[in-house]
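Usage example:
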Amino acid sequence: MRIGVYPGTFDPITLGHMDIIARGAKLVDRLIIGVATNPSKSPLFTLEERVGHVQREAAHISNVEVVPFDALLMHFAEAQGASMIIRGLRAVADFEYEFQMAGMNQQLNSEIETVFLMADVALQPIASRLVKEIASYGGAIDKFVPTRVAAEVRDRIATNAEK
Amino acid sequence: MRIGVYPGTFDPITLGHMDIIARGAKLVDRLIIGVATNPSKSPLFTLEERVGHVQREAAHISNVEVVPFDALLMHFAEAQGASMIIRGLRAVADFEYEFQMAGMNQQLNSEIETVFLMADVALQPIASRLVKEIASYGGAIDKFVPTRVAAEVRDRIATNAEK
Amino acid sequence: MRIGVYPGTFDPITLGHMDIIARGAKLVDRLIIGVATNPSKSPLFTLEERVGHVQREAAHISNVEVVPFDALLMHFAEAQGASMIIRGLRAVADFEYEFQMAGMNQQLNSEIETVFLMADVALQPIASRLVKEIASYGGAIDKFVPTRVAAEVRDRIATNAEK
Amino acid sequence: MRIGVYPGTFDPITLGHMDIIARGAKLVDRLIIGVATNPSKSPLFTLEERVGHVQREAAHISNVEVVPFDALLMHFAEAQGASMIIRGLRAVADFEYEFQMAGMNQQLNSEIETVFLMADVALQPIASRLVKEIASYGGAIDKFVPTRVAAEVRDRIATNAEK
Amino acid sequence: MRIGVYPGTFDPITLGHMDIIARGAKLVDRLIIGVATNPSKSPLFTLEERVGHVQREAAHISNVEVVPFDALLMHFAEAQGASMIIRGLRAVADFEYEFQMAGMNQQLNSEIETVFLMADVALQPIASRLVKEIASYGGAIDKFVPTRVAAEVRDRIATNAEK
Amino acid sequence: MRIGVYPGTFDPITLGHMDIIARGAKLVDRLIIGVATNPSKSPLFTLEERVGHVQREAAHISNVEVVPFDALLMHFAEAQGASMIIRGLRAVADFEYEFQMAGMNQQLNSEIETVFLMADVALQPIASRLVKEIASYGGAIDKFVPTRVAAEVRDRIATNAEK
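Running the assembly step on the lines above writes:
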C-alpha cells in the first residue's frame, strides 16, 4: 500500500490546497493530510479547528485521512509509514524554498521521496496569507476558499476585531 | 479621465520610487500615490510624515496627488475611480510576489488593471529596508533617497537611538 | 492622445495575446498591434496571414489597429507616435528577457515607457511555440487559440506535411 | 495498477536521469521510460541506440520498460494507460519550462497528473548537452554518465570527428 | 596583500559555510571571517560562542582570521583593509538578495568588489535556519554541520527547552 | 602569482564586458581574457578581429593578456595555470546557466574556483546579442559598446548587407 503525506498549516485551507489534495489522492492508496501546529505563526484558527476544516472539506475523498502533527515533517512521514511527501508548487519562490527543504530531507531519509504537484493554473496565485489579508479589510474571499471556510474566516476576523 | 494608483509604504521614499512616480504620471491623467499605514511594519516615519515627504518630493509633477489609505488596495483603487494600479518591478523576487497579488486582484475586480513599470536600471537595487539598515550604521544614503529625505532619515535614527 | 504599441510575431495569435490586447486597449486611446516579420524564426504563417488573423480576431475592439513592421521596435514605436510599449508577462523566464530588452530600450529612448501587463492566470502557460508543437502531433489546440485560428493552424500543418 | 511515464531524449542518459528513474520506479507499479525521437535536435545517438542504452542501464530495475515514441507526450501517456507523467526538476530554468508544459497538459487531459521529482542535489548540474560539449573537447565525463555510456559517447564523437 | 572579508551570522556554522571558507581562503592572502552580532535575529549562540565555533572549525586554514563586527558591512571591510567581500551563493533566492546588496554596496564603495562563490553542489541546500528547525524537533543534523557543532546545537536546544 | 581566466566570445565586446575585465583585473596578478572561437554561433567578427578588439580596448590595464582558445574551458584554464575562472553575472537567467556550468566544472577540477562578479547595475542589461540586433536595424549602440567597436559593428553589418 502506497501512503503519501501532504503537510501544511491550512490556516485557512484554500481552493489551491483542495486541488492538490484531489490530485495527490489519486497518486497513492492513502493520503495523510498532516496539519502542522505552527504556533509561531499565530494562526487564525486553532489546530483543532483547522483539522476540522480539512476533514469536512475533504470528506468526499475516500482515501484521505487528516492527522495533526507537531514534529519534524520527516519523522511524521516515517511514523505514518509514508513513502512520499507531496508538496504543491505555485511559483519560483515556492520552488526555491521547497528545493532547499527537499534537499535536506533527502539527507534525513533517502527512502521517502518528495513529490511536487502543480495546482490548476487558475488557482496558483492563491495564498492563505493573502486570503487573510484580504478578509481583514472586508474583501471578498469566496473565489479563494471553500464557501463555508469563507464564512468562518469572516466570523473569526470579526470576533478578533471586537476584542 | 484615466486615473492610476501607485501604492506603497514609502518608509522612506527612495529615488527608485521617484523614478516610478515620474514614469507613472506620464501614463495617466491623474496619479494617486497611495501611502499605506502599515503599522505592522513599525515604520520609521509616521503616516503623516510619509505623506508629507511624498507630497514635497513629488510637488513638481502637476498631475500627482498623495492620499493615505488603510484599506484593501483594490477597495482604495475603486474609491479613487482608478482604472489601473501601478507597481514598480525591480527583480524576480518582486515579480513573484507581485504576480501573486495581481492574480488575486484580477479575481477581486477584473476592471482595474495592474500595470508593471521598470525603474531605471541604475536605481533597481534600492530598497527602503536596506536604506534604513545602512543609515542605522551611519552609512551614506544620499545616492539612494532625495537629499532632504536623507537628512530626515539620519535625524530620526539619531533621535530613536537616544531613547 | 495616448498611443501604445503591442509588438509580437503572433504565429499564431493565442488566447493569451487576445487577453493582453483587451487589457492594453483600455490603457490607451489607440493601440497599435505591431506584427513583426521575423523571417529568422520561419513562421508557420506569412506576415500577411498573421496581420489578417490579428485584424479579424481583434475587430471587435474599436481602438485597435494592426500594423506590420520590420524595424527596431523602438523605431517602430517612435514612428507610430507611441508613448508606451505594452508587453505581456507570463513567467520569470519572460521577465528576465523582457527586463533586459526594457533596460536597453530605456537607453535608446527614455521617453517611451515599457509597460508590463499580466494575462489572466489561466492563460499564462499558453505559448505560440507549444501550440504549434501540439498541433503538429494532432493534439487539440482549441483551448489555446481562437476557434478559426485553430482550424487555420491545423490546415497549414496538414498542407506542410504533404509537401 | 499505477503506470507512470518518464519521457526524455536521453542523448545520452546521465546519472541525473538514472537517479530520477530509480526514484520514479518506486512511485508506480510500472514505469514506462519514453524515449523521444527528437530528430530536430540532431541527436548524437540514433533512437535505437538511445533505447538500447536506457534498457541496459535500467535493466536492474524490475518494473521499468523502455518505449520509443514519436507523438505528443500526452497521447503517448494515454496510449500507455499512464496516470502520471514524471519529470525531473533541476533548477529554476527547468521549472519555468516544465510549468508551462504542465499547464498546457492540464488542459489537454486533466486526468493525467504531472509529477515533479528532484534528483539528488549532487547530480543536479548534469545536463546531456553539457556532457556532449565536454566530451567533444576531450574532457572527462565519467562522473556524469554511466561508465559504458561514457565510452560510447567518446567513441561516437571520435567517429564523427573523422568524417 | 589581498585581503577578503567573508561575513555571516554563523548561527551555527554549517558545512556549506566551511566549504566557502576553504574556497575563499585560496583566493586571498588573508581571509577575515566577519561574525555579525545580529541581535535582531535572536541567535541561538552568543556572539562569543559563534566566534569561538568559527575559530575552532577553521583553525586548520592558516590565512584565516575571525573578527566579530557590529557595523555596516562596507565599513567593516574598509576597516579591515579588504579589497573584496566574499559571498556564497546557493540558489536564486540568495542571488536576488545578494544582487540587491551588492548593487547598493557598489554605490557605497566602488573599490571593494563583491565576489560570489558557489558551494559544493551537495552542500547547497544547507541553511542554518533549517538546521536549527530540524534540531529543535530532534532530527539528525550531523550531515549539515561540523561534528562538534552538531553536539553544541543539540545541547543548547535542550538547555533552552528546560527553561 | 594568482592567475584568473575570463572567458567569452566577445562578439562584440560590450561595456558590460569592459566593466567585468576592470573588476577582475584587480582580483588577480594576471588576468587572461580567453576569446572562444565559437564557430557554431556564426560570429559577426572573426576570432582574430575579436582578439584584436579586446586587446585594443583593454590595453590600458597592465595585467591583462588576451588569448584565443578552442578547447574545454577547464583545460584552457589549466593550461594557463589559472586558479580561478571569472564570470560576470547579470540576471537570474545567467545565474542558472552559470551555476550548472560551475557545478560540472567543480567535478572536472576542484582546484580551479569559479568566481562570479557583478557588473555595474547600469550595464547589466547589455548583451552582445541585443547589440547586434539593434545595430542590424540601424539603432544606436554607442551606449552599449566602446566607441570604436560601435563603428566596427555598423561597418560589418553594412558590409554583410551588401552581400
